[in-house]
Structure prediction request, 108 residues.
Amino acid sequence: MSKFKQHYFVCINARPPFTKPSCGPQNSNQILILLQEEVEKHGLLNDIKVTGCACLGPCEEGPVLVVYPEGTWYANLTLEDINEIVESHMLQGQPVRRLLYDWPENVD
Prediction:
């Protein structure tokens, strides 16, 4: 196996009801599966890895996705957004600006 060019981490964390929000109940598992299917469909299995992960932090903005090595963060994702991420970011290397996470100024 060769080194991946990009690694997409999708938060699939699910907290108990009546606590802080989490990505899991907001279709993040479906987003994960859809991204994995798109990677396979476009023949990118040797270049791009898509992994489900635990909490990435900005839970109120979920579902959250981060792309490494560049450190691009997406937030408030829907299933409808995934095709745009695939076409623009995965295939053309251009992050989808309207979906980028807007980091608060007080975060280091």
